[in-house]
Amino acid sequence: MVESRHARDHTGLSRTTAIRLLETILTHADQLERVDRVSDIDIHPLIKSELEKSFLESLRAVPGAQIQARIVRNKPGFLWRSAEVAWEIAPQMDVAADPGMDAPSIPDFVLYPVRPQQSRPVAVFLDGFKFQADEASGHTRGETG
């Protein structure tokens, strides 16, 4: 809640919405957990492991880099910028089989260059390919059968 003499400085803010949100939080107060840092709160539905969180943190730690939430290929993802390059980062993206790839897969992340003429997409498997695919059967993580 913000107190201000100038309502024009806070367009889009709603006292009613703020009260409703606080009431919802207080209604569930017995379910709240204390955390040391806000960054400890898992807010991304597709980030599955500590390795994946660490990967994003390492991108965030690059000097001069910026990472922000963004919809990528119709899913929650990120935009990462550093110097002259920018990549869209899509977690848990289905990658179909094609002539250059024998089996479909679901990499932990696919990085898509914002300027496709500069590079090709990059699939990132953080926990190793053996966790992504069963070589004998050709099945990949997320498939059934």
Task: Give your account of this protein's structure.
It is a single chain. It is built from two helices and seven strands. The chain is α+β, with helices and mostly antiparallel strands. It has one domain (38-140). The strands form two sheets. A five-stranded antiparallel beta sheet has the order 1-2-3-4-5, covered by helices on one side. A two-stranded antiparallel sheet has the order 6-7. It is elongated. Mean pLDDT is 77; it is low at 139-145.
Question: Percentage of helical residues?
Answer: 10-25%
Secondary-structure element order, as H and E?
A: HHEEEEEEE
Radius of gyration: 20 Å
In what order do the strands lie side by side in the largest sheet? 1-2-3-4-5
SS element count, helices: 2
Could you say which overall geometry the principal axes of the C-alpha atoms support? elongated
Report low-confidence residues grouped into runs of 5 or more.
139-145
> pLDDT average, as an integer?
77
Main pleated sheet: 5 strands, antiparallel
Please give the number of β-strands: 7
Count of distinct structural domains: 1
Helix/sheet category: alpha+beta
> How far apart, in Å, are the first and last alpha carbons?
52 Å
Short description:
The protein has helices at residues 15-27, 50-60, and strands spanning 66-72, 75-82, 85-91, 109-113, 122-124, 133-134, 139-140. The chain has 145 residues and is an alpha+beta fold. The chain has one domain (38-140).
